[in-house]
Automatic annotation (TrEMBL):
The keyword Calcium does not apply. Keywords: Membrane, Transmembrane, Transmembrane helix. It comes from the Eukaryota. The chain crosses the membrane at residues 260-282, 288-312. Residues 101-110 have a biased composition (Basic and acidic residues). Coiled coil: none annotated. Residues 83-110 are annotated as: Disordered. This is Cora-domain-containing protein. Residues 87-100 have a biased composition (Acidic residues). The keyword Transmembrane helix applies.
């Protein structure tokens, strides 16, 4: 911030200028310029306003250039800019070949492997700074009109002061006005510098507006990339779930096959073991008939029990009634009971 105090004696434009600023370099530059262009200040002391405005315009230009490069680096992280080699990476090493390689990787589909969680924070921080810069540029761009009005007021006061000083003299009012008004060249030079500074500040303001639009667009792109990445992760999870379901179904079919084979041959194997143990003694010509009939009956019984078990285990439970419906019914019933 530059604070300027100016006291002008209207009769001969003698002036006292006090400048204060926290930055010693700014004070040194302004003092050096005042000494270097003393002729302009002698012609009219309001040239100091242009000196201050031009000094601030230079600072604003460097500020805008820094923000421009920072936004460009953030855009290069999402592959939304074609000029990767013009910006250094976030670490500041400035390796152009590495930046171009990263750019080709991003264009080739490397974005899906990148993390954009910290990028949103950086973009919002830049957006806050850009809005602050836009406010400052808007205020600075409006100073030109104020300086021009101040110049007109100063000239009018000088003319009025000249008329008062010459009212008791032989010199007429017209001659006094001519003597007290500044020359056309002096005023044109001051106004021209003011207009030039206004053009520079308007250009900086336009750049800030463009950077704000690019930052907002980058925020939308980042949200889209995050959503796309989340969708891809969900698709991969769903694909993995389908693969697991397929493997589970294959295992289930295998287990069912093993179960069917076991239930088919287990009754016959058990009866054969009982026959070989000598627990039952049958005649040789009837033994195979009894064995075959008993095996078929026992196998059918085992399959029937298994089917009943599967039916009980897999049958659907009746749907529970809605809680609100039940609550309404119970309330309605209680009202009827109370009425009765």
């Amino acid at each position: 911030m530059i604070a300027l105090s100016l006291r002008i004696r209207l009769h001969d434009l003698s002036s006292i200028i006090l400048i204060s600023c926290k930055d010693a370099l700014v004070l040194h530059d302004l003092s050096a310029r005042c000494a270097r262009q003393l002729a302009l200040l002698t012609a009219h002391p309001l040239h100091i306003l242009n000196f201050v405005l031009e000094r601030r315009s230079t600072d604003f230009g460097r500020w805008v250039d820094g923000l421009w490069g920072h936004v460009g680096r953030l855009e290069s992280r999402t592959g939304m800019t074609p000029w990767y080699s013009e910006y250094q990476d976030e670490d500041g090493d400035g390796d152009e070949e590495e930046a171009e390689g990263e750019g080709r990787e991003k264009v080739g589909g490397g974005l899906r492997d990148r993390d954009f969680t910290d990028l949103l924070q950086r973009l919002h921080a830049v957006g806050v700074e850009l809005r602050l810069a836009q406010t400052i540029m808007t205020f600075a761009a409006g100073l030109g009109a104020q300086f021009t009005n101040l110049l007109d007021v100063c000239e009018e006061l000088r003319v009025q002061n000249g008329r008062v000083a010459h009212e008791d003299r032989d010199t007429g009012a017209a001659a006094a006005d001519m003597n007290m008004r500044m020359g056309r060249g002096v005023k044109a030079e001051i106004v021209g510098r003011i207009k030039w500074n206004e053009c520079v500040l308007r250009e900086s303001k336009t750049k800030i507006a463009e950077l704000l639009d690019r930052t907002n667009a980058q925020i939308n792109v980042t949200y889209s990339l995050i959503a796309q990445k989340s969708s891809e992760q969900n698709l991969r999870i769903a694909q993995g779930s389908r693969d697991i379901a397929k493997l589970t179904a294959e295992d289930s079919r295998t287990m069912k096959t093993i179960t069917v084979l076991t239930l088919t041959f287990l009754p016959g194997t058990m009866l054969a073991s009982l026959w070989d143990a000598g627990i039952f003694t049958l005649e040789a010509d009837q033994s195979w008939r009894v064995y075959l009939g008993t095996t078929i009956a026992l196998t059918a019984f085992v399959f029937g029990v298994w089917y009943i078990y599967i039916w009980i285990a897999t049958r659907k439970l009746p749907l529970l009634p809605d809680a609100d419906t039940e609550k309404g019914k119970s309330g309605y019933g209680s009202k009827i009971s109370a009425f009765k």
